[in-house]
Amino acid sequence: MMGRSIGSLGRQRDPLDLEFDYFGQTVRIHPHATDAVELEFLQAGRDIDMSALDGVDLSQVDAMAAADQARLVRAMGQATAAAYRAVLDALRRLIHPDDWDTYWRLGMENGQQIRDRMSDIKAITTAVVESTTDFPTGRPAASPTGPETTPPASTADSPSPAPASDLEVAMALERGRPDIQEFYLMQVEDKERAERDARERTARDQRQLAAAGLG
């Protein structure tokens, strides 16, 4: 027995006609680029197994036994490889196929780092959203400066520090790698943005109910 159809879903969209200047050459954006690429990029980060960080004392990372350090290095290496794959996959779905080689070559010739490539992902998806909705997102295209990751020195009167979060531990382990640190920061930014949007939706619903005398 077949279920009851709810009709046809999906919205036909015209191919995008967007481009950007890249070190003196024009690079086209993929005609079917979508902001969902960034969503998948962020989801790839959330899927990375960080269980090896469980119970890690942030202040004692450098003093850990060699075997424990090796375990963490191996876990972070796997996370780094997953981050690189996510960046490449996202960019290939945002850059026009015929311009991909040009984009990648120019970036390599001009010393672009992984962090720069992630900034490109943000900038392109932001442009795609604005082009398809005619509404500015208000999101900055450039990557924000990462927060200071070195904890302040404690004093005798200072309270015991809170347990380090996965983000703090990951960023401490990736000292000197702002590109990988930025990957973790993007996950946190996305989570905070989703939580903020949820709060705003709840507040908006409550105002509407109150206006209707149902609050």
From TrEMBL:
This is Uncharacterized protein. Residues 151-166 have a biased composition (Low complexity). It comes from Micromonospora tarensis. Residues 191-207 have a biased composition (Basic and acidic residues). Residues 130-166, 191-215 are annotated as: Disordered.
